[in-house]
Amino acid sequence: MEEVVERSNLKLAYQRVVENKGAPGVDDVSVPEFKDWLKMHWPSVKRALLEGRYLPRPVRRVDIPKPSGGIRTLGVPTLVDRLIQQALHQALRPLFEPTFSDSSLGFRPGRGAHQAVRKAQGYIREGKRWVVDIDLEKFFDRVNHDVLMARVARQVSDARVLKLIRRFLEAGMMSDGLVKQRTEGTPQGGPLSPLLSNILLNDLDQELERRQLAFCRYADDCNIYVSSRVAGDRVMDGVRTFLEDALKLRVNTEKSAVARPWERKFLGFSVTVHRESRLRIAPASVQRLRQKVRDLMRTGRGRSLARTIEDLNPLLRGWINYFRPTETKGVLEELDSWMRRRLRCLLWRGWKRRATKARKLRALGLDAERARRSASNGQGPWWNAGASHMNHALPTKYFTTKGLVSLMGTHQRLQSLS
Hints:
By secondary structure, the chain is of the alpha+beta class.
């Protein structure tokens, strides 16, 4: 505990908590107010930590929709509890990091989703063309506290630290002013939860290594690569038994499967069926982007094209930066074309009257007769957005000069830099 509250460790933890910003917890202390709060209260908090008396506040419940449907429940701790959790994380990570598997790639320094999907691709290219895709049922909600604490205690002997971690696990969750106590689970939203998830699932990694299986795990997403369907079924049964018996976790049978890798997705990616499988963006990931663009365009009706593009660009940059390892380009070209058509549709709707449409088309370079016929063709906005007169009036170059991010162009630049 002395290492946790040591000045340099706390200074780094404070810096990270403030940089992450985030919403206040149940005490309503915000990031701008936090420094003054600490000046007044930190001496008593530190004393309680060193004496093993500190009691975390309940976390504030926040429900957010999952991309694949359903609800993900986050628990937002108070800022002081986030500070303590971050300080704990920094003190504990050096103890546990050497024990983790090279195939564990989530929430670890120098590792990430891109390394995970490339490692998976390597297994497939080696001939392991069946995947055991394991989805843990409500993992963060179902973590058994006793099982987890037994694994933390393998490396941590300070009773104050162990007691504090358990108190964080058991801290209630507040919703609509009522606090519900927790007997299982580690709520997403605190800095300590990712490390705790790796500590618990390290036993799974060691079991898979003991069986000499090829696998990639990113948090609670685990894919195991084998050479046949028979081997896959056998591995699925064995891993399910291990998870249920040793870690008290359940496999979601509806979302888990033994299948061909190109029929499944892993961290938003999939692969092509070729022997030298190439990384591609999973169709579900493409559909989620399309839906986000539709939602943004819907709220953007009535706004200028420049404002709509300004709102759209951060979404596109973030998306293509995540998917930059993709090796199939056709989908990027299709998305670029589809987004330009959405913008043309938005403009066509905004022009409303036939006379306005004809005037705008003339201003964009169409001759008067073609502009008149196009403006009065009786077709709907989406049809017109894909028609030759709108493509002629508003070509790709027009949107480039307006600053619209091109997914294909950005991907090519990222590839040339890597």
